[in-house]
Design a protein that fits this description.
The protein is built from 19 helices and 15 strands. By secondary structure, it is of the alpha/beta class. The radius of gyration is 26 Å and the shape is elongated. A motif ('HIGH' region) lies at residues 39-48.
Length: 414
């Protein structure tokens, strides 16, 4: 199957500059292609996964992906999708983010070539920039691109206005140095991608075989944007979103969305995905499709061992056998739950519930204990006179408290 056919089946194509030309080129030879990422933060989130997993699909088909980290473009800000100017980062922030993102990409995508557009942008003087590149851009054409026109009412600085030129320069540079012929990007990048095509054709001639392909914005079945949770973005950095939280995000997807996500975020075959789609109809309570999705994406991003830990935590929390967790696993499992610090001294159970902010009053705490609603480290306790010694569980670092069936709290021992 031609890679374009696979991308189409998976719903990963929004716009193409020349489908027939790109398809013919891919049939002729293995190509080099790229996707860019600006260092606006020090971690990717799952919104970054789709374009890079698309590059990975090309790599598995024998092609040669490049990733451009925007040390230059990230220092001025992309106007795309923004209602106002992006706050300017210091160069120290940019450089820190470049290093962090480069390491992250290399850890997940082993076959990508990493480059930084600061390397070829920084040596260009202002006069050379204006004469060699600015002269090739028509302001009227730039103003008509949605990426710019959407900002005209509120205003756009000259700095962000020139972003389109710098991104186009990336494509031209990669084409000249590495024969990169395809740029992949998100749907909101279409204006920048086509500007790169225009620049190459003006600088290298109309017969230059270069192409652009964008990936659609991913929406859930209810029409809302995919990838956000109540706690914010789902990060690829395990310190920001633990592998367990990451696993749970995918496992908790709705039946209406999971097949679409399996197509886009896994490398499973059509036959395998069709079988999982059938399982949603015949045995939805087993959540086999969701479990497979969570396994595949977690393993791809975080590795086999992180997946095993995430699944262990999931099973332990389902069974309530909290003591089966290690101290590190407790920290990961309860990373996002309400937590309070307590002293290392033995403490009465009622006082513990107050100190951990589980209950607001001693009366309510006593009622919860006597009614069997409280579990400490997985054990149901009903005696209000009990003393709890924090040093006896999880290396003296944590006490896990459950109130009712699902409400967890974490006491962190000082």
């Amino acid at each position: 199957m031609n890679i374009i056919d696979e991308l189409s089946w998976r719903g990963l194509i929004n716009q193409q500059s020349d489908e027939e030309g790109l398809r013919n080129l891919i049939d002729e030879k293995d190509i080099s292609l790229y996707c860019g990422m600006d260092p606006t933060g020090d971690s990717m989130h799952i919104g970054h996964l789709l374009p890079f997993m698309t590059l990975e699909r090309f790599a598995r088909a024998g092609h040669h992906p490049y990733v451009v980290i925007g040390g230059a473009t990230g220092s001025i800000g992309d106007p795309s999708g923004k209602k106002a100017e992006r706050p300017m980062q210091t160069m120290d922030q940019v450089n820190h983010n470049v290093e962090a993102l480069s390491n992250q990409v290399n850890n997940i995508f082993s076959d990508f070539t990493m480059v930084n557009n600061y390397d070829w942008t920084e040596p260009i003087g202002i006069l050379d920039f204006l004469r060699d590149y600015g002269k090739l851009f028509n302001v009227n054409t730039m103003l008509n691109k949605e990426i710019i026109s959407s900002r005209l009412e509120v205003g756009i600085s000259f700095t962000e206005f020139t972003y389109q030129i710098l991104q186009s320069l990336d494509f031209l540079t990669l084409y000249r140095k590495h024969n990169v012929q395809l740029q992949v990007g998100g749907g909101d990048q279409w204006g920048n991608l086509t500007a790169g095509l225009d620049l190459i054709h003006k600088a290298e001639g109309q017969d230059a075989k270069v192409y652009a392909l964008t990936i659609p914005l991913l929406l859930k079945a209810d029409g809302t944007k995919f990838g956000k949770t109540a706690g914010g973005a789902v990060w690829l950095d395990p310190k920001k979103t633990s592998p367990y939280e990451f696993y749970q995000f995918w496992f908790n997807q709705d039946d209406k969305d999971v097949v679409n996500l399996l197509k886009k975020f896994t490398f499973l075959s059509k036959e395998e995905i069709d079988e999982l789609a059938e399982s949603i109809k015949t045995a939805p309570e087993k959540r086999l499709a969701q479990r497979t999705l969570a396994q595949e994406v977690t393993k791809f991003v975080h590795g086999e061992e992180a997946l095993k830990t995430a699944e262990k935590i999931t099973d332990v929390l389902f069974s309530g056998e909290i003591q089966a967790l290690t101290t590190a696993e407790v920290a990961e499992a309860f990373h996002g739950v309400p937590s309070e610090e307590i002293a290392a001294d033995p403490i009465n159970l009622v006082d513990l519930l107050i100190a951990a902010n589980v209950d607001k009053s001693k009366r309510q705490a006593r009622e919860d204990i006597q009614n069997g609603a409280i579990r400490i480290n997985g054990e149901k306790l009903t005696d209000t006179t009990l003393e709890i010694d924090p040093k006896t569980s999880f290396d003296g670092k944590y006490i896990v408290i459950r109130r009712g069936k699902k409400k967890y709290f974490l006491a962190k021992v000082k």
